[in-house]
Design brief:
about 450 residues, about 25% helix, alpha+beta, 22 strands
């Protein structure tokens, strides 16, 4: 409660002047007809104030005027007194206290029942349980205008000592509405790739990397980094060894499979209309995505970076189910229902070099080959390609933009073939008849006599 603008003694003196300038007040034991009764109604709430319960006024008029004026004078005189006190710049609640003892308590009770702050609509995103978005609707707030109420009381007192006021509190509007949030549940883009479910370490790494993005909020005008989000692919960070590409070859290393996670995310970002700031391709063709749309990452050297240049924040849901890893991106739709298509244009095919032949002298591949006339491929040859990656943007069926993304060259790889190192032994034909034995003996002696 604010303090008075001048000392209390000055205020009381001025009130005395006002009161002595009024007609002679009613005696202490005023007639019951002069009792003021005020009723306040709001929806199903009702409040009542009456001066009938106040004690009889003594003959000390200063005390009567300052504290118990609600029992003195006619209703119109009381209304005039209230207006004069308000005109002094006194806060309404203070004016109530000095003009109508106990009225300030009733008004405070009304405020406690009516006044409330507005509640903004809220949205919760839980990517692990459908429905993924939960909305809480907004609620308006209300505030009783005490100054307006004081003037309305004074107006009523001019005409009656018993009246009812229908309260009309100010409506306080929330700043966030359900309609502002509901469109965030719109699926802007999604993408998934497949992997070998039997490779446990690779699946583990994919799941771990994807978990770093599950539930992420992509804020407008902010840039993001795949490497900064996932951290280094090390044993300490929970990653396991699996095949990775190093120097155009597949070797075992920590974090194998993470590039499939980054590739899946990259394509979902493209299909959602986000701006890709940095992306790199593999040196070899990836089996799980179209050429030109892979996203190789390596902590410290190669990253996937993107920015949200749209008019909406976006929310990321990732999942690994069976042999599929997927990314879904939600956000408010564009002004038009745009869709995107990924196009790979092959500019050139590159023939693979001649096969590399390994003679298995140590028997390392005895499960595949043993003799010189046996051979098996341990690594197949693959063509190389030069491709262009294109992203097409459609409004319905109408192509409105054809955007060149990048040119990528994938290396051709030679096949690796292993052959056995042993000469296959000669197995003599079985002798079944006497004539065959004689003929074999003659042939033997012919060979012997040649030496």
């Amino acid at each position: 409660m604010k303090t008075l603008k001048f000392p209390l003694i000055v205020f009381l003196f001025m009130v005395l002047l006002f009161c002595f300038s009024m007609p002679v007040l009613a005696p202490a034991n005023a007639d019951i007809s002069e009792i003021v009764e005020m009723n306040f109604v709001y929806k199903d709430l009702s409040f009542k104030y009456t001066t009938a319960h106040l004690d009889n006024i003594s003959n000390f008029y200063i005390k009567s005027i300052a504290q118990k004026n609600g029992r003195l004078g006619t209703h119109s005189q009381r209304g005039e007194l209230l207006r004069k006190v308000l005109a002094l710049g006194v806060e309404p609640q203070v004016a109530f206290k000095y003009c109508f003892k106990g009225l300030e308590d009733v008004v405070s009770k009304i405020q406690s029942q009516i006044d409330c702050e507005p509640v903004d609509a809220e949205m919760t995103f839980n990517p692990n349980n459908a429905p993924y978005f939960f909305f809480k609707h907004e609620k308006p707030g209300y505030k009783l205008d005490i100054s307006a109420l004081a003037n309305e009381i004074a107006d009523n007192l001019e005409h009656s000592s018993n009246f009812t006021i229908n309260l009309k509190p100010q409506v306080l509007l929330p700043s966030v509405y359900y309609d502002d949030l509901k469109d965030y549940a719109n699926l802007r883009g999604s993408f998934y790739t497949s992997f070998n479910e039997n490779n446990a370490n690779r699946k583990h790494n994919i799941r771990l990397a994807m978990s770093k993005f599950n539930g992420m909020r992509i804020e407008r005008s902010k840039e993001y980094s795949f490497n900064e989000t996932t951290g280094r692919r090390t044993d300490a960070n929970g990653y396991k060894p699996a095949n990775i590409i190093v120097d155009k070859k597949y070797v075992e290393g920590y974090g194998g499979g993470v590039c499939q996670a980054s590739t899946t995310l990259y394509n979902a970002l493209l299909l959602s209309g986000l701006d890709i700031r940095e992306v790199h391709s593999h040196s070899l063709v990836s089996a799980y995505v179209n050429m030109g749309f892979d996203a190789m990452v390596n902590f410290g050297t190669s990253d996937l970076r993107w920015a949200n240049n749209t008019n909406t924040d976006m929310f990321v849901r990732t999942y690994v189910a069976g042999n599929k890893v997927g990314v879904q991106i939600y956000g408010k739709p564009d002004d038009r229902p745009y869709t995107y298509k990924r196009i790979t244009e092959v500019e050139e095919e590159i023939a693979p070099p001649a096969d590399e032949v390994i003679i298995d002298k140590k028997g390392e591949y005895s499960n595949l080959v043993n003799y010189t006339d046996e051979g098996a491929y341990i690594s197949a040859a693959h063509k190389g390609y030069k491709v262009r990656a294109i992203l097409e943007k459609y409004d319905g069926e109408t192509l409105i933009e054809r955007k060149f993304l990048r040119r990528v060259q994938y290396q051709a790889t030679k096949g690796v073939k292993v052959v056995g190192a042993k000469e296959r032994p000669v197995v003599p034909e079985p002798i079944t008849q006497q004539n065959d034995l004689a003929a074999a003996t003659v042939e033997f002696w012919k060979r012997f006599t040649q030496f």
